[in-house]
Design a protein that fits this description.
By secondary structure, the protein is of the alpha+beta class. Helices cover 28% and strands 25% of the residues. Strand 2 and strand 3 form a beta hairpin. Helix 4 packs across helix 7. The model has no long low-confidence stretch (mean pLDDT 93). The structure holds adenosine-5'-diphosphate (ADP) and magnesium ion. Magnesium ion binds next to loops.
Length: 314
Amino acid sequence: MQASEITWLGLIVDDYLVTDEIGRGGMSRIYRASHVHSGAEAVIKVVTTKDSADAELGRNQTCANQLFSGGFGPVHPSPLQLLSMEWKRGMQSGAALCCVGQPAELADGAYGIRPFLKGRTLRKEMSTGITEKLKLLADVALVMSLVEKSAAAYHGDLKPDNVIVQESGIKLIDPGYFGSLHCTEGDIENCVVTTPAYYPLLENDDLFAFGAMSWEVLLSRHPLTDLGAPRQDVGESLRQWVRDYQILGRHSVNSFLSLVLPSEVRADFAGSAETFLLKLLRLRRDLESNKLEYDPGFASFGELLDHLHRAKLT
Ligand SMILES: Nc1ncnc2c1ncn2[C@@H]1O[C@H](COP(=O)(O)OP(=O)(O)O)[C@@H](O)[C@H]1O
Ligand SMILES: [Mg+2]
């Protein structure tokens, strides 16, 4: 079957009747389906080579890039490989990441079936109150502390669209990938399948992605894309850090020179709340010079959670 040329609506796939299209990402289409005998609800994720080649990428969309010295550029990994990665990494995570079924190949792509998760993405929950949002972020940090201790080791594509908020708690879906891939362009060693707005260094840094997501969820603006004027209070260690990544071609680090700080958006985010949010983005304000400097940030989600509990922020 040519997955890219047909609509899946009304088809029966492995005993599941496809009833709705519920999403379309940079590399995939997501359909809702129900089992023809048991009525069990499922989601079918279809990845095609055509969709990934045609995708016009929004800032929240996952894309695949190869890294080379001084830059990066798009690549087209095999769809079956992408879905197989998701399947294997789900199993390695010991159920911390949503478990998905083994994928099957199509003429121009692949598909995988997984349980339907009742709930809404964290992006859709952004209009709830601050206390609820802090609690949800703490839940994400808790699940991530399990992921980092599991064989899966990282999520790799943490963002509000990949967090499903359910009545029973949160579920993380759709992990990214950092490593070697078979691509249309050949076998490539240094690849990243992730969302650059949350992983601007194109490094496997879930803690940074969690920081960007926390700013976005709490302040309703993305720290690296909703910018202000160039800041006058950037210290030397932050300038040097930006220069180090510019040399590697990661030009989105320039955004750090025009950040809008939490207290500049919401007066109630001054003081310790701002210090905490700055540390999540690997920043601190120097007490003597009052300049924004680079900070190593938290070393693990475990350490971040300890801090949250001690500060009684949740
Ligand atoms: N198992 C699921 N249950 C319910 N909704 C889902 C499920 N999987 C995905 N979705 C919805 O579809 C969207 C895209 O799915 P995702 O697996 O993240 O694909 P993509 O690779 O396109 O980002 C999610 O943000 C979510 O809204
Ligand atoms: Mg996703």
